[in-house]
Amino acid sequence: MKDPRQDPRQDPRQEREPAAAAPEPAGPRALLDALWPPRVTRSQLLAAALLFALGLALAIQVRAASSEETALRNARPEDLVRILSDLEDRTARLEDERAGLEEQRSDLETSSDQAEEARRQTLERERQLGVLAGTMAAEGPGISLRISDPRGVVEADMLLDAVQELRAAGAEAIQINDVRIVADTSFVDHNGGVRIDGVPAGAPYLVSAIGRPQDLEPALNIPGGVVQSLENEGVGVTMDRPETVVVDALRSAEQPDYAQSSS
After folding, report:
1. Which of 36, 38, 108, 166 could disulfide-link 171, Cβ–Cβ 3.0 to 4.6 Å?
2. What is the pTM of this model?
């Protein structure tokens, strides 16, 4: 017998279907699910590393520029004059070198015997390199510097300053006493004196430098320069412009242990 309260249209065997799951809330939860855990690809890591390196390089460059600007702002007027003079001299020398290279190229292009012209230029370049390396004697215009040191106050760094000033002014060959000065020459204080490339050098120090006297002499005589610094220490300095300066102290040509010519 059926229950009169039961709806005749409803099947008693039919089970009630579970209610549909409520949709998850959108918004912050969805954003968090999208961002965490992070999904980083190899290309993204590479891009991040490149950006970091670029930012670091820019920061270092800005800091270096700021340091140079601060140094120039705090420099004495005579130091600024010296820096400006050095820059002008270097610019002029680079222009002369560029003009010489262009002239050599023009000679090679217009010469009727290009092989002979190339050989001539090779020999000339070899001679120039021999002078710079100290393996060949040289003579030409320049200055002669005599540094007296009765009190024994001249130190290695003072002589090195003089050499650096001469090089910056365009000296092509330098000799102190009987020692040829080249790129790797060492100056060391030793037992109250100075050793140049291991050779004892005593006063008076005779410095011979080949180059344009109009550039070399002002470079040493500028305010706050080498001559003034030496004189402030009680050192006597005399400078001459001989008609011909001879630099004849030689260095032996040393063969490199590891570097070999690739040609």
Report:
1. 166
2. 0.55
Q: Phi and psi at residue 246, in whole multiples of 5°?
A: -110, 125
Residue 17 to residue 20: CA distance in whole angstroms: 9
Helices vs strands, H then E, count in the chain: 7, 10
Q: Tokens for 198?
A: 């291991």
- Return the closest-CA partner of residue 180 out of 225, 240, 236, 246: 246
pLDDT tens profile 204-224: 999 999 999 999 998 898 888
Answer yes or no: are the C-beta atoms of 141 and 131 closer than 8 Å.
no
| Bridging pattern class, strands 187-190 and 173-176 | unpaired
Is residue 229 within 8 A of residue 157, CB to CB? The reply is: no
**Alpha helix stretches (DSSP H) within the chain:** 28-35, 42-74, 77-110, 114-133, 156-168, 213-221, 226-232
Helices 213-221 & 77-110 angle (0-180, nearest 10): 160
What is the number of other CB atoms lying within 10 angstroms of the CB of residue 230? Answer: 23
* 26 three-class SS: coil
Which residues neighbour 199 within 8 Å (Cβ) at sequence distance 6 or greater?
178, 179
Instruction: Give tens-digit pLDDT for 232-250.
Output: 999 999 999 999 999 999 8
| Residue 62 DSSP class | H
Ramachandran class of 241: left when φ > 0, alpha when ψ lies in -120 to 50, beta otherwise: beta
Give the residue from 204, 140, 149 showing the smallest Cα distance to 176. Answer: 204
Q: Which of 240, 253, 250, 251 is nearest to 209 (CA)?
A: 240
DSSP 3-state percent helix, strand, coil across the chain (nearest 5): 45, 15, 35
